[in-house]
């Protein structure tokens, strides 16, 4: 049985995530301590018992979700995880950085710092209130993209941000352009849409200033070759060395997160039939179930889920 580890992105955060794990496992406590030290603040206190509005701020949510994912991963590792039994990693947007850290490409310290900088750069790229993101439920990426072309949207102001699964696509861009397209969409298809509670239009062309800022920052980071290969969001390339890594991470900030295709590639190219969501929540597990219906899907984010997960991973 081929296995994949998936690392969640923004939107999976909640107050108290990882706290039980830190209470029971030294490996988890060490992760939170190292992240706190890298950032020069007690991010762990915000994660465990802070205010959800503050945690949801992009500058906090990105390193926080990564910290919990790495805490889960380190607990698995310290309790007998056989890395050779994992065939492929992938992460959703910021989760790609969690995957890079877990696979040894970046240190935990560098990952913490770069995600804080990434969150700030993405937040500051567009003035608050000028951009928005909307989930379209019940349509494929192909259908939404086709309707965007028909509606003659300005591709410099709006695009598909996340192709999450066959029934959920997220669009992102300038407020008026997004609202115009949603009105057009409802005239044509009358599909359900959900305004997402975000403060900036992530994964859209409006993030170009964030991409430029991150190019400078990423060039300062020391990278190593991955222990486990990683499917990258922006072009579905399989990372086996550090060649082209900075360029693709920069492109990812403005580019579409091709998550559905990433899942499909894991099955077609690697024969994956078991997916493990490593970190808070069950968002990615849902996308797997809707994309690869007959696969085994396990969420690993609580202390009570560690032993069962290890049995399946190492079998």
Structural notes for this entry:
The chain is of the alpha/beta class and 315 residues long. Helices cover 48% and strands 17% of the residues. The chain folds into 2 domains: 2-125 and 206-313, Malonyl-Coenzyme A Acyl Carrier Protein, domain 2; 131-198, 2-Layer Sandwich (Alpha-Beta Plaits). The protein has a 6-stranded mixed β-sheet, with helices on both faces. α2 packs antiparallel against α5, α5 (58-78) packs parallel to α6 and α5 (58-78) packs antiparallel against α7.
| Order of neighbouring strands in the sheet with most strands | 8-7-2-1-9-10
By CATH, the architecture of the largest domain is named 3-Layer(aba) Sandwich
Distance between the termini: 9 Å
> CATH topology of the largest domain, anyone?
Malonyl-Coenzyme A Acyl Carrier Protein, domain 2
H/E series: EHHHHHEHHEHEEHEHEEHHEHEH
- Secondary-structure-derived class: alpha/beta
Number of strands: 10
Give the amount of beta strand, in percent: 15-25%
The CATH C-level name of the largest domain is: Alpha Beta
How would you describe the shape?
Answer: globular
Number of domains as seen in the coordinates: 2
Q: Can you tell me the residue ranges where pLDDT is under 50 for at least 5 consecutive residues?
A: none
